[in-house]
Amino acid sequence: MSDTTDFGFREVPRTQKASMVREVFESVAPRYDLMNDLMSLGIHRIWKRIFVNSIAASPRETLLDLAGGTGDIAFGALARGAKRVILTDVNPAMLEVAQKRALDRGITTGLDFAVVDAEHIPLPDRSVEKVSIAFGLRNCTDKSAVLREARRVLRPGGRFHCLEFSKVAIEPLAKVYDVWSFKVLPEIGARVAKDRDSYEYLAESIRRFPDQETLEDMMRDAGLERVAHRNLSGGIVAIHSGWRL
Question: What is the model's pTM?
Fold first, then answer.
């Protein structure tokens, strides 16, 4: 394994990436939800709604939500009928926002919070029915380790779900998307969040993330089966899923 890894378009020591990503999300946490609306023109809400519906956690199932951020997936899963959601994130600042949002929504049962590194999940083998991660896998240092850990904690018959930015499949859209990502998004970050650098990193991290087919291969290598993906918005994002059988 290389001693370096990607941090946007830069190569950095593997041991430093986690702390660098943590700094990014500590910076963006207070305006994270507003910035998501601005950056995606509100479309992220539709993507997440489709994602939650695809997870389809039932009243008999526990969902482990990795890199859960400010809680959108967790809240959606509970509203759809999940028995229990464990909302985790490596960044306490993001979880603090999620906890405040949960209180504002009157959510007092069925939701647990934990600071968790998705590469080292502190749960027993075969302990949950569903695992999800939305817009978080690309920020992990060892993505394959996250996939292996997700499979480990899944019960047989359990399913892993990932929502992530991916490779745009429509060429004219790809050109527009590049302008939006590298010109518009950093400017929005500078004006609204007073943080151009963090949003430049986020745009760059999307381009460094594996494409749909490569991520499917990584999931299979981690031991997941019946791996599949579904493109949304022309491949700007994709939902990947795989089973532990």
Answer: 0.93
Give the list of residues 6+ apart from residue 200 with CB closer than 8 angstroms, or none.
8, 182, 185, 186, 189
Instruction: Measure the CA dihedral 205/119/43/172, to 10°.
Output: 40
d(CA 245, CA 223): 9
- Could you give the C-alpha distances from 145 to 201, 232, 243, in angstroms and in order? 22, 26, 16
Task: Kindly state the average pLDDT of the residues 109-117.
Answer: 97
Sequence ranges of the binding site for S-adenosyl-L-methionine: 70, 89, 117-118
- Per-residue pLDDT reduced to its tens digit, 185-195: 999 889 988 88
Nearest to 205 by CA among 23, 10, 1: 10
Binding-site annotation: residue ranges: 70, 89, 117-118
Strand partners, 4: 13
